[in-house]
Design a protein that fits this description.
Number of strands: 0
Helix content: over 70%
Strand content: under 5%
Radius of gyration: 13 Å
Largest sheet: none
Number of helices: 2
Distance between the termini: 7 Å
Order of helices and strands: HH
């Protein structure tokens, strides 16, 4: 995963989190938080597999 894809996915997920807070829906907020954690985890696993380079 290149850095552009990582940041795009992370920002979309963070946007979902904020949207959930704005509209007052905790389930949407939690879904965004879990999606963000998943994007970060996959990115870190791919970086580790590639020997430390994104």
């Amino acid at each position: 995963m290149n850095l552009l894809a990582f940041w795009f996915l992370a920002l979309v997920c963070i946007g979902v989190e904020v949207l959930g807070l704005v509209i007052g829906r905790q389930d949407v907020h939690y879904a965004g938080a879990l999606a963000t954690a998943g994007v970060v985890a996959v990115h870190l696993l791919l970086v580790r597999r590639n020997g430390g380079t994104a």
